[in-house]
Amino acid sequence: MVLGLAIILAGALWYLQGASKPNDKLADPEAGAHVVYGKASAPVTIVEFSNYLCPHCKDHAEQSLPLIFSEYVDKGVVRYIFRDLPFPRQDNVELAAQAADCAYEQGKYLEYHELLFRANGSWGRAPVLELPKYFSDYAGQLGLDRHRFDRCLADQKTKPWVEADKALAEKLNISGTPSFFVNGKFIEGFRPFSEWRKIISNAMTGKK
C-alpha cells in the first residue's frame, strides 16, 4: 500500500514537473530558422527566444551575448539562432522584431538588436502608429539603406518570420523569455557569461 502510494506520488510529481517545461518532442527549436549566425558545422547550437521589452532579455543582450559571440560564435564553436516571442497585445514588440529582421536583410541584425534593447524606454512607450519613424531613425543611425528598410517594414516582409517563431514557441510550450535551447536542452532565464562558459563546455562534451 505504501509502495503503491509512493509510486503514484512520484508519477504525479513527474507529470507536474514535465507539464511546466517545454515539450521538445513536439517541434525542433532550430526548424525554419531565419536569423542565424555561425558555422553550420559548429558543435554547439544555441536557440534563443527573446522579447524586446523583457528586462532579462536586455541583460542577456548587453552582458552575455557579446561575449558568447566573441568567444564562441566568431571562433566557429557556436551556431546562434535568434527567435522572437512577442506576448499577446504587444504589437510594439512584434513590430520591433520585424524591424530587426529587416535589418538582418542588410547585415546589421546584431547592431539593431542591441539598439532596440538600449532604446526600449523610448520606442516601448510610443504609440504603435509612430513606431515606423522610430525604427527608421534607428536604421539610419546604423547606416542602413533607409528606403529599403522602410519598404521592408511597410510591406511586412518579415512578419511571417515573427509569426513562425511565435507558433514554434507555442508548440514548444515556451511561455517566458529569455528561453534557450542548447543542443536541444532547454535553459530558462538570464545567465551570466560565467555560467554560459559551463553550459557551452558541457554541450561540447555531451554532458547534461
Description:
By secondary structure, this protein is α+β, with helices and mostly antiparallel strands. It has one domain: Glutaredoxin (3-Layer(aba) Sandwich), CATH 3.40.30. Helices cover 53% and strands 12% of the residues. Strands 1-3-2-4-5 form a 5-stranded mixed β-sheet, with helices on both faces. Helix 2 packs antiparallel against helix 4, helix 3 packs antiparallel against helix 4 and helix 3 runs parallel beside helix 6.
Features:
Glutaredoxin, 5 strands, disordered N terminus, 9 helices, 12% strand, alpha+beta, 208 residues, 53% helix, five-stranded mixed beta sheet
Instruction: Please state the second-level CATH architecture.
Output: 3-Layer(aba) Sandwich
CATH topology: Glutaredoxin
Oligomer: single chain
* Average pLDDT for all residues: 89
- N-end to C-end Cα span: 35 Å
Share in β-strands: 5-15%
Radius of gyration: 19 Å
Overall form = globular
The count of DSSP E runs of length 2 or more, i.e. the number of strands, is: 5
In short:
The chain has nine helices and five strands, in the order αββαβααααααββα. With 208 residues, the protein is α+β, with helices and mostly antiparallel strands. Helix 2 (55-73) links the parallel strand 2 and strand 3.
Spell out the blueprint of helices and strands.
Layout: H1 2-19, E1 35-37, E2 44-50, H2 55-73, E3 78-84, H3 91-104, H4 109-118, H5 120-123, H6 131-141, H7 146-154, H8 159-171, E4 179-182, E5 185-188, H9 193-205
Parallel strand pairs: 2-3
Antiparallel strand pairs: 1-3, 2-4, 4-5
Helix pairs in contact: 2-4, 3-4, 3-6, 6-7
